[in-house]
Amino acid sequence: MNSAPRRFAPIQRILHWLMAACIIAMLFIGVGMVSSVAPTYLPLILIHKTLGVTLLILVAIRLALRLRYGAPPLPADLPPAMKLGARLSHLALYGLMIVMPLLGLGLLWAAAYPVVLYGGIRIPALLPQSDRAHTLLWDAHYYLAFAFFALVLLHMAAALFHALIRRDGVFGTIALAPWRNRTTPAD
Known about the structure:
mainly alpha
């Protein structure tokens, strides 16, 4: 008897799509922040910080749900290299979803900037002020954002590959609405 789920739990699917929208927004807001000195800069920072902390909380919830509910198995006919790529890319996505907000908070703390979120929520500094640490953390946050964006694009390409080309049911495991699987000879 196989106890692995056929689809992700509804809460897992909702969190996946909510976080996907927030992460894509974060990437574009980040680009807007580093390319702007306009009056929109400060509101973008506030949104970016608030979304970053929110995503950090959501990824912790998502990891707990993953441990609780598990994940559907990949198709048996998926080549081993693709299975390995899927596992490694998901580990990298989760890693970046955790590391990016922590780097962002760290760079603000190292610069002695107060971390104030929407609603006036303050997060106390956990690092001392350090110009060197600020520079290192800023550089890591900046360059890893490009890697994150590339990984998100790769993830989207893989999703489209499974949904439209292989039609193997992988996309249907995370889709919010029922998704039609591979066509059968009777089709």
